[in-house]
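Translate structure to sequence.
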């Protein structure tokens, strides 16, 4: 009972501009954001895929729209979200089996995930979009 009455008044930092997350924390947030973005864009991607397969004319229209630079940037962003979510998901599978849980390994695997996802985005973006 005495422990309940003695509560420590811990300082609260609610200023989001001053909070500095470690690299694994940034990776975790981006993993969630990329997953949510992919989930929300899934109906659009499925509609684009379906419309590109409907007729040869619709495929030609799809190619013309996909050739626009703004659309290419959006598709490149979706490609990065997929690559990042995939690579980070593999990292989290290893963390689930207690591999790479210590601080040094967590930082190293976070750097590897960022490097591999950006490299995959560049390679696939050049091969598929340009």
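Result:
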């Amino acid at each position: 009972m005495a422990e309940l009455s003695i509560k420590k008044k811990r300082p609260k930092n609610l200023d989001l501009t001053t909070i500095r997350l470690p690299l694994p924390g940034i990776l975790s947030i981006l993993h969630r954001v990329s997953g949510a973005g992919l989930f929300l864009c899934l109906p659009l991607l499925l509609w684009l895929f379906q419309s590109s397969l409907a007729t040869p004319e619709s495929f030609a229209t799809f190619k013309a729209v996909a050739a626009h630079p703004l659309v290419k940037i959006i598709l490149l962003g979706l490609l990065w979200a997929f690559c990042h979510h995939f690579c980070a998901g593999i990292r989290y599978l290893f963390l689930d089996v207690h591999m790479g849980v210590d601080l040094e390994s967590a930082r190293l695997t976070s750097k590897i995930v960022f490097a591999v996802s950006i490299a995959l985005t560049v390679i696939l973006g050049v091969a598929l979009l340009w």
